[in-house]
Amino acid sequence: MAATPTTQSTVQVLLVEDDEIDAEAIRRAMKKRQLPNPITTVHDGQAGLDALRRDQPPRPNLVLLDINMPGMNGHEFLEELRKDPAIRDTLVFVLTTSNAQRDKVLAYEKNVAGYIVKSSFQSDFTDLMGLLEPYWNTVEFPPKRPMGP
């Protein structure tokens, strides 16, 4: 049986971001571009993993991940995400202030779909949404796996 393609309206976005100003700017940019995609915001990596692991729909298809957060940071989130067979194929874009080579290398070693430095967008993320929208309208997302044992 073929997987049902994910459409723009069904792409569930999980924003793992501790900076409320950046989180609000991303939500505003989605609204400005009239993107109907549901977005869930959590403030650290552990809450992000919990959102991905919950056994009820809708589970996020795509994660926008900050690296530098208190508690579980983005690198620790990626480490745990890639170890979990039920969610390891989740698409993740890093969206961070860090332009450090080490952070980029660590993120790509964990198979992120892209590494985006926030300063590239001068805190107006409308262009970022313009970049991501065709991506999630074009690619086929991994099929949802059942949760549980």
Describe this structure in words.
The protein has a domain at 14-96 and 103-122: 3-Layer(aba) Sandwich (Rossmann fold), CATH 3.40.50.2300. It is 36% helix and 15% strand. The chain is built from 5 helices and 5 strands; from the N terminus they run βαβαβαβαβα. Strand 1 (13-16), helix 1 and strand 2 (39-42) form a beta-alpha-beta unit. The longest helix has 13 residues, at 20-32.
Summary keywords:
disordered N terminus; single chain; five-stranded parallel beta sheet; 149 residues; Rossmann fold; alpha/beta
Give the SSE layout.
Blueprint: E1 13-16, H1 20-32, E2 39-42, H2 45-53, E3 62-65, H3 74-83, E4 91-96, H4 101-109, E5 114-117, H5 126-138
Parallel strand pairs: 1-2, 1-3, 3-4, 4-5
- Bulk shape: globular
Beta content comes to: 5-15%
CATH superfamily of the domain at 14-96 and 103-122: Response regulator
Number of helix segments? 5
The count of strands amounts to 5
Residue stretches low in confidence (pLDDT < 50, at least 5 long) are 1-9
Order of helices and strands: EHEHEHEHEH
Can you give me a brief rundown of this structure?
This protein is an alpha/beta fold and about 150 residues long.
